[in-house]
Amino acid sequence: QVQLAESGGGLVQAGGSLRLSCAASGRTFSITRVAWFRQAPGKERDIVAAIYRRSGGSTYYPDSLKGRFTISRDNAKNTVYLQMNSLKPEDTAVYYCAADQTRLGGYTYWGQGTQVTVSS
Fold it and tell me: Confidence band (pLDDT; 50, 70, 90) for 119?
């Protein structure tokens, strides 16, 4: 089992920055990929970034977020970060951390989420 705990959400003005943290515990050695998702009220949960343990720690971002969001990891702390810059009101959502032990497909482990609110 793997447990995930997000932190770092809050209220920020448009144009500001936030850094979210996802601390993993349990069988962390088995994790092959970690991702951040977000879900705004009335909308589907969408992926915003992913990082892979193999492939040299390669990353993935949807085209719409490239350049503003950066995912990174600190293996010693079993923590993955999401740096969010130039935030917009439309970035307002609950942000979730997710992890899995496989290379493809859905994510098995999820955190409880952290609220990010961007005011205009």
Answer: very high
